[in-house]
Amino acid sequence: GVHTLTWRVKDEFNTSATCDQTITVLDSTKIDKSCPAEPSVTINTCDDMTWSQVLAKMSDAQKATATRTNCEGAEAIVMDPAMFYKKQSATKYEALTDGSVFEYSESYDIKWLFTKEGTNLATMTDSCFSTVVLQDTAHPTVDCSKMSPIVLSPKQTCDTLYQLIKPVGVFDDNCGEGNLTYSYQVDGKGEYVAFNGLNKETFTNGAHTLTWKVADKEGNESATCVQDVTVKDETSPVITCPKDTTIQLLTSCEVDYAFPRANATDNCTATDKMQYFYKFDGDADYTLYAAGTSRELGINAYTITWYAKDSTGNESATCTANIVVKDSTGFNKVCPTHPAAIIDTCADMTWGRVKANLKADEVAKVTRINCKENQVEDVDPQMFYKKEGEADTKYVALTDATVLTYNQSYDIKWLFVKEGENVSTMKD
Q1: Helices and strands of the chain, counted as H and E runs
Q2: The three-state (H, E, C) secondary structure of 371-414, written as one string
Q3: Per DSSP, what are the bridge partners of residue 387?
Q4: What are the tens digits of pLDDT across the range 11-20?
Q5: 144-148 long-range CB contacts below 8 Å, 24 or more apart?
Q6: Which is nearest to 267 in space by CA: 287, 237, 239?
Q7: Which tens digits make up the pLDDT trace of 65-116?
Q8: Cα(179)–Cα(352) distance, rounded to whole angstroms?
Q9: Cα separation, 34 vs 128, whole angstroms
Q10: d(CA 227, CA 105)
């Protein structure tokens, strides 16, 4: 405070005079300041903010404080700073008020000015400095439970060209989903590809993955989330059966026949990679075909029913192939070794009587294999005759009752015929 010191002087004659001396005692104690422990401040936001909003988000470690000695009391006096700010690109500080606007993504220098002045106070100032930037620092959020799987069904080819669709409801951001850019990776291989809404990827038959992630405008990345992609071939193979086959057996009644396989085409599975199943008439179940498969076949007509199965398990329609095994064994023929027979008689005779008088070497004899009965049997000839010297066109049927004229020469034809179901017709 201000004090008055009065001086008095007295001489030897006891005469005195006074004068006053003014003494002023000023508080010149220093300002006790505490500058921010964290002078570089980043405020997580998406928009511009006022200083009051910025200050509300700042921690104590990011603020400056100061006190001064209270000469009139025991407790120190807390000082309110005068605030100033400027963009870092500017040179001049301006007064900072609660309503001052800080622009998003702009960096500011902050000046905390503490001033000590007043009655009986020695005027002094002290300052602290800090920087403030408004920036989105939050990472986007992920909820993989909302990721929907993709199921594709190829048609013409096994590979499926698919136009990607951005996952919905999986990723979010404090500044809004529209703030995000998406990228993806196929089957965990290669670099992430930026999603632009037009991306197409080719997926082969089977299981695949799309790994998605997002980043906001500040480059804050999310965690990844995997989307399952399944290419499920639901197209059935198209089968073609072998051509119908006829087998001529020349020397036996059975054959071990390596029958040809059916063929099929498919959008995913190669012809030789498919499974083929067959069933003969009478079989209870289908059998998986293996290369070189054969079947013991007798004289008969057979139908083989086929179907094919691709690598995904899709089955074709059925088709049938027919196999006819024919008895084409020939005759065992013994023609008369004495083809000119003379019958000793005095009159006309029936063929039945003539035949009874023929010797063994004057008769034709034929046997054949009867595959149906699995035995060798005689073949009865059909008989024809004509007068000797007539054209072959004159042959007519010869029966036991046919009368042959005395002293007339005849040509006899023994015709052996083999025919019937699954028997190759032949004559000799």
Answers
A1: 2, 40
A2: CCCCEEEECCCEEEEEECCCCHHHCEECCCCCEECCCCCEEEEE
A3: 410
A4: 999 999 999 9
A5: 144/170, 144/225, 144/226, 146/170, 147/212, 147/225, 147/226, 147/227, 148/227
A6: 237
A7: 999 988 877 789 999 999 999 999 999 999 999 999 999 999 999 999 999 9
A8: 116
A9: 8
A10: 34
